[in-house]
Known about the structure:
Layout: E1 3-9, E2 12-17, E3 26-28, E4 34-36, H1 44-47, H2 53-58, E5 63-64, H3 68-73
Parallel strand pairs: 1-5
Antiparallel strand pairs: 1-2, 3-4
The chain binds zinc ion.
Amino acid sequence: xxxxxxxxxxxxxxAIPGEVQGQNIPVTTLCGQETTTPDHxxxxxxxxxxxxWDCHEKARGYVHIGLALLAEWxx
Length: 75
Ligand SMILES: [Zn+2]
C-alpha cells in the first residue's frame, strides 16, 4: 500500500510519500521537490499554506495516513 502525508514545506502544503521519519531530514515531495522536513512542529498557520496541486494530483494513487506521528513531535 502506498501512503502519503501532507506537510507544510517551503510555503506550500506538499505531500510526501510514506511516513515522516523525523524533523529536519531530507524528503522528496510527490511533485518531485527535494526539501527537508520542518525542524519544528508545523504551526496552525503553516497548515493553512496553499495546497500544492501537483502533489494533490499525484496523491490520488496513495492512501492518506493520519497525523499521529506529528502529534508525537509535541512530546
Ligand atoms: Zn508538491
